[in-house]
Structures are given as C-alpha cells and as structure tokens.
Specification:
The complex is a heterodimer of chains A (733) and B (159). By secondary structure, chain A is α+β, with helices and mostly antiparallel strands. A 7-stranded mixed beta sheet of chain A has the order 11-12-9-19-16-17-18. Chain A has a 5-stranded mixed beta sheet with strand order 1-2-3-4-5. Chain B has a 5-stranded mixed beta sheet, sandwiched between helices. In chain B, helix 4 crosses helix 5 (121-128). Classes of the chains: A alpha+beta (733), B alpha+beta (159).
C-alpha cells in the first residue's frame, strides 16, 4: 500500500511558523527529516489572491531519516489522478521512485497550498497540472539540489561531480553512494538555492510514461477513506430533511413518532431543515420518515421552470455586457449573402456524485473539528469558523478522498449545514444527505438561454457572428472580485475565443439570476454550455453553406494549426465520410478551451421511434506535454461519459418551488450498457500542459447533437436529447 | 431483537430493528465502510454485497433477511478466487477514478465471474447495468472483466 489515505494524515510535522512562510525554506523536521516548503507567486495576478495572500508556498516534501518521501498534495484527489500526477512531477526532479512516495492530504492553508492559477487553495477548472507543472518540478529539483550539495560537502567533492538517482546521491568518479535518508540533517542546514535547473522534456523518465496510480490499491479492497467513511468514538449519524421549496422555512414539527424510533437520539431543528440524529443511518432515515413536518414554502412556493425560462427569454432580448467585439457585426450582417439565427437552451443540471454530500463535525466549547472531502478546504474552515463563532485557528479540517467532485464540492453549503446541526449535538455527528436530498438540494449548473446569429458571405463562410449568452453568473457569487463590468471570464469561456477565422464577432452577456434555485460550477464550467452552442451553430452554418461539417471547419482553421491537427486526426480515425447504415450519423466538434485542443467525432444510431444509441466516440487531443498518458485517456473516457449523461438525459426541473427529480430513477445517468466505444488519440506535443478534467465533457455534447442531425435531419437546440424524440424516418415525433 | 449474522466468515450479533438495511449495519454498527451508500433505493449498486454468494443491494436488504446467510463484503472478496482475479484486473487496467462506486462494481463483477467463465458483452451489460459510475469507468470495467475471465481460464488450465 503506497498511499496513506486509508487513515488520517499525520498533521503534526507540518505545523510551521506562518511568519516564516514567505520564503522558500528548509528546516529540520521532527525526527530529523528534511522539510521543504516552497512558494509560488500568483502568476495571473488574481484578484482573489490579492485580497488574502501575498506570497504563497503551496506544498511540501518530507523526507525522513529512513529515506521515505511524503508529499503533501495541495490538489485534492477526486478521480482525476492528482495524487499520482503531482507526485510524478516532484519525483521526476527529486529522483526517487514513484512507488516509494507517500501521499498526504493538505491541511487548510491558502498561503502554503495556493493554486497559483486561481489564487487560493482550490482544485477545479481543469487547472491542476497547468498550475502545478513548473512549481512542483521546481520543488523536487530544489530538494534534490540540496541533498546533492549535502552529500558533496560530506565527501568534500564538487557537487557537479555528483548526481542523484533513485533516492541516492552518487559521486560519479568514485562510485560512492549515500542515501537521501542519511543526508536529511545535513541538507536541512543548507541555504535554499534560488535557482535550480529543471530537466528538459527529453530528459524526463517519469513524465510522459503511463504511471500506475498510487491510489488504486486502496480503491479495490474497500480501504480507501472518503469523507463519508469517517469513524469517531461516540459519533452519531444524522439524516436531513431540508425545506423542499427553495427559500422555504420550517413551520411546525411533530417529532413524537420519530423520537420513539429505536436508535434515534435527538431531533435538531434548523430554520429551514430538520435533522434526525441517531446511532446509525438506518435509524436516522426511519426517524426521518416518521417526522410530521409542516413547511412554509416561502417566496418561491409557486415557482416553475417555465417561469424562469420565460423571464430569461425576455431578458435575452436586450443587449448585455460586451465580452468581445471584433469588427462591426451589424454592418457585416447587413451585407451578408445568407443569414442564419437560432436559439439554444440548456437545462439546470445536478452533479449527482456517487458519494452523496456529507460532512462530519465535532463542535466543542472552544474548538471545532471537521471531516469532509472538499475541493475548497480553506473555505470549509472559514465557514465552520463563521457558524461556530470560533477563531479560524480553532477550526481543524481533515480532507479526504472525494467520491466525485464535478464542481459540487467547490461549495460549502453542506459544511455550513453540518456545523449548524453539530452545534446542537453533544459529540461528533456525521451528517449525510440522502440521495434525494443530494439531488433536490444540490447547487445546479445554470440554465442558459442563448441567441446566436451569423451572416455568411457568397462562399458560405461566416462574415459576421453574434452570440448573446443569458444566464446565471456563478463567478459573481463564488469569486466576486473577478466579476467586473457585468462580465465574468467563466460564463463566456468558449464563446469569446472562437478557434475559427471570423472577421466580425460580437459576444455579449446578460446576467440573469433565477429566483430560488442556487447555481454552481458543473464539470466543464462555462465551456460546457458555450461549446455546445458554438459547435452546434457551426454545424448549422455548414449546413446552410451546403458544405461538409469537417471541411467547413477545416477551412476556417487555417491559422490555428493545433486545432486543425486534432480535427484532421479525429476525422481520419473516425472514418469521416465513409458510408453508414440508414439511421446512423456522425457529428463533429472542435474546441480550444483550458489550453487543450480537442476534436471529437460521435457516431450515433437513431431508431425509427427516436431512441438514440451512441455507438462510438473518437477523440483527438493535443493537451501539450502529457504527464500521465493513461490518466489522459481515463479523463477523456470519463468526461465523455459524463457529458453524454448530461446531453442525453440530464435535466433538473422545478414545480411549486421544488426540484421534481429525486434519485437515479428520474435523474438518469449513463450506464455501462449505454456507453459507446471510446477511442482517444493523443497528439505528441512539447507545448505547455493544458487542462484535462473537463474538455471531453464540453466537446462531446455538440458532437452528439450534430450526429443526431446527420442521422435524422433534426437539429437539437435544446438539451437534453431524450426530451425530443428525433425520428430517423423524418416523421414528426 | 439481536440478529446473528455471518460477515466475511465471522459470526456477529447486532441489536437493531429487523428492517434496518444491511448497509447501515455494516457501515455504522460494524464500522466496515468499504461498502458504500449511493442511492438508498437499489438504483446504483454502490452498496452491492454477496448474500450466500449472490449479489444483493445492501441498502434495500433488511437485516432480518440476511440472518442465517453468509454476507461477503469488499473487505473480504479478495479471499475468493474470482474476487482476487477481478481485483487484480482492476489494478492492472487502472479501472478506478474517484473509486467510490468501485466496491459495488467489483462485487457485481465477481458474482458474474463466479458463474460465467467467459462473459460476453451482453453478459457484462446485464450483470453490470445496475452499477452506476459517474466517473465513467465503464469502458475499463468491461475490459477488466474480460481480462479477469481470461486470467481465470489461464489459471484453471495451469492448475
């Protein structure tokens, strides 16, 4: 077992004096090991960072006297492979075997563990490898340099005559060797070098190889510990009933029957929820079912999806904040040979991570301890401090493996609620959302209502392009300083940065916050909505120009070679143009978001009564330097399945102020028998690494819709697909 | 009343109501957390265990129905030949991502392999369609089951 996540990480050796964290530093760890902290200045001048931190070390390496290497990983493991890829980056330069590395969860500390792309301790937005690629290698190289220097000093030789290999320093001329564990004390006494050399890509021995994931063994035998698996002496378990209507309140409660359920210990009343605290979740749920609750449904008591969409449609008829303006759209449209316009709509979506929301909290008189799996551990700590009224340093948060993140665990609503419950409970309590509560009290991918229009020149090429986005801004709530002048960089991501050569472009954004329903990031964030619109509409333009969808795009990518290359590769591997049986069709999409170039070809078969079967997805990707190619394959397979679930079936609807869906029976997700063959082709590249967790999700949705168009002639302008039976025989559905 | 159950070969007594799902007995009473809670309604398969060797959704199986039967969980499935073979294939093909559903996937796959030494794609679909994975590890699950079946047949020949 190489990963230490089946038990709580030992926090004790990691306590630093915060006043000394602004510099790269080494110190002697408890027990004589070398501790190395290092800082990473924010590269993108994030406004979030400016308000909270100045310099921010973001990880450390611990090498103990036995030579064991422990790596504290600032980026959480939610399936995307960070607990392997980050150690790979460090081990590459540190010159240790990956298998000998132990991984530990990072405790909350925005200074030490800041994500330099986002400005605080956060895992999301497909940012990890982009943020960590250089700093983590530099961390490893710095440690290695100090160990080599320490050995050379001990031997009284020139450090340049020594090299490091597999956890040892070797004096090349004499062949003398010394293990890292025997050098930690001497290395810790050395000044930290300011400038260390990093390997060239052609010198990598680990990066670019399909490394075995360090977290796999514990995930096949039940040993892996997620937040929901916490066990504490005297711990109780609580099930929740939250006001079914958004914004509703608890009016009256008869808990007599619930209290008589065996194992039920306590009923906790919150303003908008009730928690049944019990010895085990079976009793808690039974108690919950026995409660007689009267809710005051509040201001959204009559709210329905149709009301939200109607308001959004109205809002979208007036111009929004301009996100991009090239040339003169109106003039170019007026002079266009052909005009095309369309409205696209995408629904609210739940995350439905397999591990339902949960959080365990022990509130004591003068301290609070939290056990949770979170993408934003410092926010969890701050939230617990606020709810308890305790100072931040009295709140401890233990992170865990995440049983799926997908953006859901970028939010702290579940932590707040658990602390509210725990404040009324004597001893630790684990608050678990039932699946129904998890789906009905998620924070949802926003509904978007987009208008697009374009003008084509005499050759059929787009001369004018307008995309008006109307919907919620997650950034405005989640990272307010980044929301400026009515715009946020996420909601328009994928819309303002078209890969195609179009001379006159106008993109504007109408922020429209729906009442009641909370919105949040969902795998693929802004691009998941924009790429669907852009790539579906590109297909419409190709059809209007009577051109092949691949050839049409290809001609517009002449000055974007990386995008063109993935389009060529995907279409070639998919056999684009080869005949298909009746009722089948292929669709293509291209995108260049998250610093990753991707093209997908979807192949579908639509039955006469409109059932869509996705047969095959071919994906070509250029994500720059690849750290772990097997993980790139896995992430694309994963993202495609996630995107297909959303595009085919995903939809959250409201009636009477409450979510109508409740479990996997009515919030359907893809199953193994519905999963297509997926082929991934990676373009070899030495460009900077791009993001990998999300591109596959946004790219597959329009490829699917375009394939359905090819098979049936039915254009999918509103998701999910399942709601609009597209008959392959062309008859009305 | 106390229920006498057999979990992974060990006799245990648990004093809970008879309608308590086996899932919560395992997780909260016996503190065996390898078996996961996903939906509470038999829809996702994350809680799959074996009852006398047959796959069962522990979130909808009352403890009263498990009394007198052998319960096998992910913690001990590796002591059986098909379980061990499946686990090895899972590691070899790097199936898990977040890993949360994988206990249930492995329990379902093991039950399949125990009764079918050469499962077809259709057999895999029918045995595994009840297990949801939001990370979309399905293509690798399919490959790993086929790999495990091949390994099992190979071992059988060698023995």
């Amino acid at each position: 077992m190489r990963v230490a996540m089946e038990r709580e990480p030992d926090m004790s050796p990691k306590v630093f004096d915060t006043s000394r964290r602004d510099f790269l530093q080494a110190s002697l760890a408890t027990g004589g090991g070398l501790l190395l902290a290092f800082n990473v200045p924010a590269r993108f001048g994030s406004a979030m960072a400016a308000s909270t931190v100045s310099f921010a070390p973001n990880a450390f390496i611990r090498i103990d006297a036995s030579g064991k290497v422990a790596i504290t990983v600032a980026y959480v493991e939610m399936g995307q492979g960070t607990y392997t890829s980050i150690p790979m980056l460090i081990a590459e330069e540190l010159e240790v075997d990956l298998a000998s590395v132990r991984v530990e969860h990072a405790p909350p500390d925005d200074k030490l563990y800041m994500n330099p792309l986002l400005g605080f301790q956060v895992t999301g937005g497909s940012s990890t490898i982009r943020a960590a690629f250089e700093p983590m290698r530099r961390a490893g190289a710095t440690a290695r340099t100090m160990l080599v220097t320490a050995a050379a000093k001990g031997w009284n030789v020139d450090a340049a005559s020594c090299r490091a290999e597999k956890g040892e320093v070797i004096h090349v001329p004499s062949g003398r060797r010394k293990k890292y564990g025997d050098l930690t004390a001497a290395a810790a006494a050395l000044p930290v070098p300011n400038d260390v050399s990093l390997k060239r890509p052609d010198q990598f021995r680990l990066i670019g190889t399909p490394a075995k994931r360090l977290d796999t063994p514990g995930k096949v035998n039940g040993a892996a510990m997620y937040g929901i698996d916490v066990k504490l002496p005297g711990m109780k378990v609580a099930a929740l009933a939250i006001s079914p209507a958004f914004g509703g309140r608890l009016r009256d409660l008869d808990d007599a029957a619930a209290k008589s359920v065996r194992g039920v210990r306590q009923i906790v009343r919150l303003d908008d929820a009730v928690a049944v605290v019990a010895d085990h979740m079976g009793a808690a749920r039974k108690g919950l079912a026995a409660l007689k609750i009267q809710w005051d449904d509040g201001p959204n008591a009559k709210l329905a999806t149709a009301d939200i969409v109607r308001d959004m449609e109205t809002a979208s008829s007036t111009p929004g904040a301009i996100a991009r303006q090239d040339g003169d759209f109106a003039k170019a449209l007026a002079g266009a040979a052909t005009k095309v316009e369309a409205v696209y709509q995408i629904p609210f979506l739940a995350h439905a991570a397999m591990e339902p929301m949960n959080c365990t909290v022990h509130v004591r008189k003068d301290s609070c301890e939290v056990w949770v799996g979170t993408q934003v551990i410092t926010r969890a700590q701050q939230a617990a401090a606020k709810v308890t009224g305790l100072p931040l340093d009295k709140v401890t948060v233990h992170n865990h493996l995440l049983g799926g993140g997908f953006g859901r665990r970028l939010e702290i609503d579940g932590v707040i609620r658990a602390v509210q419950v725990a404040k009324q409970v004597d001893g630790p309590v684990k608050v678990i959302y039932t699946r129904e509560e998890d789906i009905q009290h998620d924070m949802y991918r926003p509904y978007f209502f987009d208008r697009v229009s374009a003008g084509l020149d005499a050759q059929g090429n787009p001369s004018a392009w307008h995309h008006r986005i109307t919907g919620s801004s997650i950034i405005a709530r989640w990272a307010p300083p980044i929301f400026k002048n009515g715009l946020d960089p996420d909601t328009t991501d994928g819309a303002i940065d078209l890969p195609y050569a179009v001379p006159n472009v106008l993109v504007d954004y109408v922020r429209h916050e729906p009442p009641g329903i909370p919105t949040a990031f969902w795998r693929g964030v802004g691009p998941t909505h924009n790429i669907f619109v852009v790539e579906s509409f590109m297909d419409e333009l190709a059809a209007a120009a009577r051109k092949d969808p691949v050839e049409y795009r290809r001609a517009l990518l002449a000055s974007n070679p990386r995008a063109k290359a993935v389009l060529d590769l995907a279409s070639q591997k998919a056999g684009w143009g080869r005949a298909l049986s009746p009722g089948a069709g292929r669709g293509v999409s291209v995108q260049t978001t998250w610093g990753t170039y991707m093209a997908q070809v979807a192949e579908v078969e639509v039955s006469q009564d409109g059932d869509v079967r996705v047969r095959r997805i071919v994906c070509a990707v250029d994500c720059g330097i690849v750290v772990n190619p097997d993980t790139v394959h896995a992430q694309i397979e994963s993202a495609i399945v996630f995107g297909l679930s959303g595009a085919l079936y995903g939809e959250i609807t409201l009636k009477d102020g409450r979510v109508e869906q409740s479990n996997f029976s009515d919030y359907r997700v893809l199953r193994i028998n519905e999963t297509p063959a997926i082929e991934v082709h990676i373009v070899k590249s030495t460009e900077a690494p791009g993001g990998m967790g999300e591109p596959g999700t946004s790219c597959v949705m329009p490829a699917l819709a375009n394939a359905i168009f090819a098979a049936t002639g039915k254009r999918i302008r509103k998701l999910p697909v399942a709601n609009q039976a597209a008959r392959s025989d062309g008859a009305p559905a | 009343m106390p229920y006498a159950i057999n979990v992974n070969g060990t006799a245990r007594k648990v004093d809970v109501d008879g309608d308590t799902p086996v899932l919560w007995v395992l997780r909260d009473v016996l503190e065996m957390t390898g078996t996961k809670f996903g939906c509470g309604a038999g829809l996702c398969g994350a809680c799959t265990i074996h009852l006398d060797g047959q796959p069962a959704r522990s979130c909808i199986t009352p403890i009263s129905a498990a009394a007198g039967k052998r319960i096998t969980t992910i913690e001990a499935v590796g002591t059986t030949v098909p379980g061990r073979t499946i686990q090895h294939a899972w590691v070899a093909l790097e199936v898990p991502q977040c890993g949360y559903c994988q206990s249930g996937q492995i329990m379902s796959a093991t039950a399949l392999l125990a009764t079918n030494s050469s499962p077809s794609d259709a057999d895999i679909d029918s045995a595994m369609a009840g297990n949801i994975c939001r990370c979309g590890t399905y293509p690798r699950i399919r490959m790993a089951i086929k790999q495990a079946a091949k390994d099992a047949r190979g071992n059988g020949k060698g023995a």
